Amino acid sequence: MKLSILDQAPVADGQTAKEALEASLKLAQTGDAYGYTRFWVAEHHGWSSLASSSPEVFLGYVGTKTNRIRIGSGAVLLPYYKPYKVAENFNMLATLFGDRVDIGIGRAPGGSAEVSEALSDGFLRQVFKMPELVDELIGYVEDTNADVSAHPTPPAKPELWMLGTSRKSAVFAAEKGLAYCFGQFMSDEAGADILNIYREKYTSRHDNTPYTIMGISVVCAETTEAAEEIASSWLVWQLQQSHGLNGAVPSIEAAKAYDITPEDEQKIADMKKKMIIGNPSQVTSALKALQNDSGVDEFMIITITFSPEDKRKSYQYIAQALKE
């Protein structure tokens, strides 16, 4: 079973953004050491609690501090940018780090309407041009544009991925012949159904075959009780976001003390339905069952904890359990 990491560089209470990014780097190094396939960095804007506003900049740092693991964006929010500049950025990374670079692309705003306006004029207009933007990016990455090439030209081209949370994104990825990452942790759709649609609609490019990743939320600890306790910070943090609060990830103690209403309890219960929380045996059993159900080629795990050490251990426990 292939496993990868998606990180948003979340800022915990009492932590600086620099410390959050340093923790994210250590997580990438943990993934490198424990056999994870990829380390992707999300793109978010205007969130004081997420330090991942510029994945391509951070990936240059991560690449120098890791050896084997693939590095990539999860995702570049393409409507904000000119495809040529995106191709240049990732060609630069691939020139530096060889056959280790992924370009995950998406079309979400990644922030508020005000932030979208500050980033780019006419974001929605660009969203409607997504098919043209993707075609243009493919041309630059594959160097098939007759008029303009994106330099530097790397020895191995970055791999292109489409990220999404719906049937529409799956069909789009399939029609463009792109590998597809389905964000189950952000979607109410059934992952198995979405991935089947992608495979059925897939149109090959250069004789490549359909390849799928499923992004899922996981917290793993030595015991079930410890995993539930560690996950409480993440759950309360998501609850606070649903109430319009953009604060740091709370400590376990603060999460326990948070005043939870009956309505909040239902929200937490719904959140947990889309998460895997447990000890190594429980988590790996759940992953295997999900893989059997969906036929997914790879899992991309997102884990948010108050303690960076708890996060790293969660990924370590999973990798070790799968080798046993």
TrEMBL record:
Pfam families attached to this UniProt entry: Bac_luciferase (PF00296)
Catalytic class of the enzyme: oxidoreductase
UniProt keyword annotations, A-Z: Oxidoreductase
Boundaries of every Luciferase-like domain copy: 1-296
Entry's EC annotation: 1.-.-.-
Family from the record: To bacterial alkanal monooxygenase alpha and beta chains.
Designated name of the protein: LLM class flavin-dependent oxidoreductase
Native source organism of the sequence: Salinicoccus sesuvii
Species classification: Bacteria, Bacillati, Bacillota, Bacilli, Bacillales
